Amino acid sequence: MSDCQGLGDCEDSRLHRLYEYLDGALPAHEVAEIRSHLETCPECLGEHDLECMIRSAMKRSCHEQAPASLKDSILGKLHGVRPEA
């Protein structure tokens, strides 16, 4: 991955920033930096495209809604409270 010097070592730091980029969680100057890097690094572009395909497949397959009882149970556990039966 020697082409990936624009994002640090382009190992874990690359993926972390790529996920933040796709989540819309980076400041504008970093978004521009990532976009520029993707234009010149086929390895990072491949990771980007793969993550986009995974996210798209997840969105298409997640049409079911969890029952309200499950939500209540999870929230109760998070708050350290037992849900009432």
UniProtKB/TrEMBL annotation:
<dbReference type="InterPro" id="IPR027383">
    <property type="entry name" value="Znf_put"/>
</dbReference>
<feature type="domain" description="Putative zinc-finger">
    <location>
        <begin position="16"/>
        <end position="44"/>
    </location>
</feature>
<dbReference type="Pfam" id="PF13490">
    <property type="entry name" value="zf-HC2"/>
</dbReference>
<keyword id="KW-0805">Transcription regulation</keyword>
<protein>
    <submittedName>
        <fullName>Mycothiol system anti-sigma-R factor</fullName>
    </submittedName>
</protein>
<dbReference type="InterPro" id="IPR024020">
    <property type="entry name" value="Anit_sigma_mycothiol_RsrA"/>
</dbReference>
<keyword id="KW-0804">Transcription</keyword>
<dbReference type="InterPro" id="IPR041916">
    <property type="entry name" value="Anti_sigma_zinc_sf"/>
</dbReference>
